[in-house]
Amino acid sequence: MEKATINVKGMTCGHCEAAVTNALKELSGVSEVKVHLDNGKVDVTFHDGKVSFDQMKEAIEDQGYDVV
Q1: Which positions ≥6 away from 43 have C-beta within 8 Å?
Q2: Where do the DSSP E strands lie in the chain?
Q3: What residue segments make up the domains of the chain, in order of their start?
Q4: DSSP letters of 3-18?
Q5: Which candidate, 46, 41, 38, 47, places its Cα nearest to that of 60?
Q6: Which residues are in the HMA domain (predicted)?
């Protein structure tokens, strides 16, 4: 398993946290998601062979947030 921290701009509330968490957990290969609203970071634990950073980025951006 791999771990990554993704910087996400625009998350401000519990709904934002839920939207990003659910979008990432729908991806095959993502096992754990922890959103930190205070600093705009998302910690993701994932299987590198099943999901790419670009797929995770797209899932977040599809929810209306910017990956920076």
Answers
A1: 3, 4, 5, 32, 33, 34, 36
A2: 2-9, 30-36, 41-46, 66-67
A3: 2-67
A4: EEEEEEES--SHHHHH
A5: 41
A6: 2-68
| Helix axes of 53-61 and 14-25: crossing angle, nearest 10 degrees | 140
- Report the alpha-carbon distance of residue 22 to residue 35 in Å, rounded: 11
Strand, coil or helix: 37: coil
Residue 26: predicted pLDDT = 97
pTM across the whole model:
0.94
DSSP letter, residue 57: H
Classify domain 2-67 at the CATH class level.
alpha beta
Count Cβ atoms below 10 Å from residue 65 Cβ, excluding itself.
Answer: 20
pLDDT in tens, 10-58: 999 999 999 999 999 999 999 999 999 999 999 999 998 999 999 999 9
